[in-house]
Specification:
single chain, about 110 residues
């Protein structure tokens, strides 16, 4: 349980997102849907855009690791412990992975 509340786990989640994008780039069609209206895709982008998700994850991990940002969030009126802070960051990263997988799945459906 101690490993889950560390920054190593956070970087591991980020690495999983990068790995998913790297593997899926070989199987994705030329255009992937990114916007849907009533379940119908109405906006497409090139498949290289799938790497925006890992870029977002890397930015989130890098910026949340900065001491000034972490200090502001852990020393507010309702302070967070380091474990709670890491869980919040991990949750955001997992949401980005879910969005990435949803876009990959929608491009094959």
């Amino acid at each position: 349980m101690r490993f889950i509340s560390t920054r190593k786990f956070t970087w591991m989640i980020c690495g999983i997102g990068c790995f998913i994008a790297l593997i899926s780039i070989f199987f994705l069609p030329g255009n992937i849907p990114i916007h849907f209206t009533n379940g119908i895709a109405d906006n497409y982008v090139g498949k290289i855009q799938i790497f925006l998700f890992p870029i977002i994850q890397i930015l989130i991990v890098f910026l949340t690791g900065r001491e000034k940002i972490k200090y502001c969030l852990t020393h507010s009126k309702t302070p967070l412990t380091d474990t709670q802070y890491n869980w919040i960051v991990d949750g955001v990263l997992l949401l980005v992975i879910v969005a990435e997988v949803q876009i990959i799945y929608a491009s094959f459906a």
